[in-house]
């Protein structure tokens, strides 16, 4: 069945149409042959509307002019974004595509207008091609369908059945909304007449906060934009009756700019520029945290603790995971040249900065305790007092320098931002195989605590992917399910090991701290006993029991306090608990994925749940460390 779609896409459209298909959207590539971390400026418009029989009195020429005008307005707005924000795009020339189900009527009218305007055409079908063509009368209408399908750069066909046609039309409506930034609705304004109808699609688009341009096919009113984003306040559940409205002259530029312009927050801009320049660091000097793990028996030192992961290796692991769902076409090219390189850079950088940040606070607390030991040692060896004070000053200077370096370089922020970006791209690599670009994710990732640049780059990358060129038949859905199960199993193994490791680390640190404070009490008791029994208080070499006990009873609490500080900063108990919760959620999801019958809508819902679980875990990490940046101990 996949070959039917591929032949439709690769057919010689020039034999059947006056307008050749537009050139495919270029995939970003850097001039230095490295990964291009800046996205290509892309934007997608979807179309829904009535079939010809529902528009018997419509002025079709006027509708074509209106659609052409709207597409022109979108292009001008996208051009303006590209011109103003060229520094943030690999190519600031907008690459525009129209996504449509090619139904006879509004869909085909918009498709013809878009092709004439140089837009790329993508088709999403409720059935395989041979079955869907039965929706078109033989002759001109069926030939038009074939011609437009041949001119489509990508075709994603569901394997629906006539026995449940309503569900198939509804499902293709979901695909359409998962792909687009703005929806054109050629609609008479009347209630829907069944599943997957225009009114239903419009209502769902509004509920998803997708801008909808309503074109009245009866010609009774001018086009109007319906969008919750026009309000000055948040509308959680907008409906057709409650959504704000505006005329298109100003609303279209505002909507396009809002959706695709990079964030204007100075911090977001700085972090985005930093990511664009991210390069591999071969070695890392940040070993205090791995040493702590080794000293407590949580895990042994590894060679990787002294080296920084390469972005190519990180990208290769994700590429191997999704290899089973690969298909030819632009989507696969964008996956290899846009998503995977950015994921690799984000994953490698977050791993590096996680170790640097954790080693930073472990070093600070450890060095603070060491500074106390140096000061106390002056009581035992007064002759070296000056040397010890100088050494103490050096240690304090190192703590200041370490803290300043971490704050200035943003170890804390970079770790969390890059980790969140990596997880969003990893989730996207999976959901996009079913044509869901996560352009308006409703999971915990929408929290206002997540930086805007992360969402912007993830969504810009999603727009570059576009629509997979395949038939979502049983074989393809099963390959997506198997890929999902592999990812779930990888995540379960990781979180299970992480929970065990963090529990062991917390237990050993807690036990060590208890021993230190117990030892302090024991030293005090021994000194009191020696004093009461009249035991000799001098040990020789000018050192007495009183001085030694003073050193011990001050040093042990200092070490204990350093351990407590590391435990509180690291929140190892909280991390272990969240990993255990994540394992439980993933185990339930794994059972659903493995046991349920294959169905596009059901599988898509499970992938959304997987994405939510992964992103929720990252947000918990952010919640833990957001208020705990690297700081001076004390």
Report the total helices.
Answer: 19
How much of the residues is beta strand, in percent? 5-15%
Envelope shape = elongated
Low-confidence stretches: 1-25, 27-33, 442-448
Order of helices and strands: HEHEHEHHEHEHEEEHHHHHHHHEHEEHHH
Output the radius of gyration: 31 Å
Which strand order do you get reading across the main beta sheet? 8-7-6-5-1-2-3-4-9
Largest sheet: 9 strands, mixed
In the residues, how many domains can be counted? 2
Summarize the amount of helix as a percent range.
55-70%
Write up what this structure looks like:
With 634 residues, the protein is an alpha/beta fold. It folds into two domains: 2-17 and 43-260, Rossmann fold (3-Layer(aba) Sandwich), CATH 3.40.50.450; 288-626, no CATH class. It is 60% helix and 9% strand. It has 19 helices and eleven strands. It has helices spanning 2-10, 60-84, 106-116, 129-132, 140-151, 165-179, 198-207, 248-260, 266-276, 288-295, 311-322, 330-380, 385-409, 411-431, 452-465, 474-533, 545-570, 572-595, 600-626, and strands at 40-49, 91-100, 120-125, 154-158, 182-187, 212-216, 224-226, 245-247, 470-472, 538-540, 543-544. It has a nine-stranded mixed β-sheet, with helices on both faces. Strands 10-11 form a two-stranded antiparallel ribbon. α2 links the parallel β1 and β2 (91-100). α16 (474-533) packs parallel to α19 (600-626). The longest helix is centred in the C-terminal third of the chain and has 60 residues, at 474-533. It is elongated. The N and C termini lie far apart (67 Å). 45% of the residues are buried. The model is unreliable at 1-25, 27-33 and 442-448 (pLDDT under 50).
């Amino acid at each position: 069945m996949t070959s039917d779609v591929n032949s439709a896409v690769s057919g010689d459209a020039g034999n059947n149409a006056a307008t050749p298909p537009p050139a495919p959207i270029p995939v970003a590539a850097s001039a230095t042959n490295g990964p291009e971390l800046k996205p290509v400026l892309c934007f997608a418009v979807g179309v829904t509307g009535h079939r010809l029989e529902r528009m018997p009195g419509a002025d079709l020429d006027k509708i074509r002019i209106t659609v052409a005008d709207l597409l022109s307005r979108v292009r001008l707005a996208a051009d303006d974004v590209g011109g103003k924000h060229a520094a943030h795009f690999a190519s600031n020339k907008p690459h525009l595509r129209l996504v449509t189900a090619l139904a006879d009527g509004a869909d085909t009218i918009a498709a013809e207008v878009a092709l004439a305007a140089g837009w790329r055409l993508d088709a999403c079908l409720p059935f395989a091609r041979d079955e869907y063509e039965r929706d078109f009368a033989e002759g001109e209408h069926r030939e038009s369908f074939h011609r437009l399908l041949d001119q489509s750069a990508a075709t994603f066909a569901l394997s629906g059945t006539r026995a449940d046609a309503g569900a198939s039309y509804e499902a293709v409506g979901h695909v359409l909304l998962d792909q687009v930034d703005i929806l054109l609705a050629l609609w008479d304004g009347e209630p829907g007449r069944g599943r997957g109808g225009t009114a239903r699609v419009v209502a769902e688009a509004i509920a998803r906060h997708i801008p909808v341009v309503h074109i009245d096919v009866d010609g009774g009113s001018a086009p109007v934009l319906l969008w919750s984003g026009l309000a000055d306040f948040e509308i959680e559940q907008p409906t057709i009756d409650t959504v704000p409205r505006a005329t298109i002259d100003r609303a279209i530029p505002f909507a396009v700019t809002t959706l695709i312009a990079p964030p204007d927050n100075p911090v977001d801009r700085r972090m985005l520029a930093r990511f664009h320049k991210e390069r591999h660091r071969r070695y890392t000097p940040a070993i205090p945290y791995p040493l702590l793990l080794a000293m407590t028996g949580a895990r042994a030192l590894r060679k990787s603790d002294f080296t920084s992961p390469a972005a190519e290796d990180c990208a290769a692991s994700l590429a191997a995971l999704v290899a089973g769902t690969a298909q030819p076409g632009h989507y696969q090219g964008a996956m290899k040249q846009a998503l995977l390189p950015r994921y690799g850079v984000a994953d490698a950088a977050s791993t590096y900065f996680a170790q640097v940040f954790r080693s930073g606070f472990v070093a600070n607390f450890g060095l603070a305790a060491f500074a106390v030991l140096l000061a106390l040692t002056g009581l035992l060896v007064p002759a070296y007092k000056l040397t010890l004070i100088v050494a103490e000053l050096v240690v304090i200077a190192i703590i200041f320098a370490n803290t300043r370096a971490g704050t200035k370089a943003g170890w804390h922020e970079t770790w969390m931002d890059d980790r969140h970006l990596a997880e969003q791209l990893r989730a996207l690599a999976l959901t996009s195989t079913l044509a869901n670009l996560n352009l308006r994710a409703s999971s915990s990732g929408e929290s206002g605590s997540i930086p805007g640049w992360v969402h912007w780059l993830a969504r810009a990358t999603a727009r570059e992917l576009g629509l997979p060129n395949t038939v979502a038949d049983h074989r393809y859905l099963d390959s997506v399910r198997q890929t999902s199960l592999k990812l779930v199993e990888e995540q379960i193994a990781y979180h299970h090991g992480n929970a065990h490791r963090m529990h062991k680390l917390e237990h050993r640190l807690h036990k060590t701290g208890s021993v230190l404070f117990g030892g302090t009490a024991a030293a005090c008791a021994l000194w009191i006993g020696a004093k009461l029994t009249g035991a000799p208080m001098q040990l020789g070499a000018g050192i007495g029991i009183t001085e030694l006990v003073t050193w011990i009873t001050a040093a042990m609490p200092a070490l204990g306090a350093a351990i407590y500080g590391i435990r509180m900063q690291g929140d190892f108990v909280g991390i272990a608990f969240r990993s255990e919760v994540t394992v439980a959620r993933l185990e339930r999801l794994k059972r659903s994925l493995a046991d349920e019958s294959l169905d596009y809508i059901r599988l898509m819902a499970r992938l959304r749940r997987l994405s939510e679980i992964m992103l929720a875990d990252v947000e918990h990490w952010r919640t833990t460390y957001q208020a705990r940046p690297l700081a001076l101990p004390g």
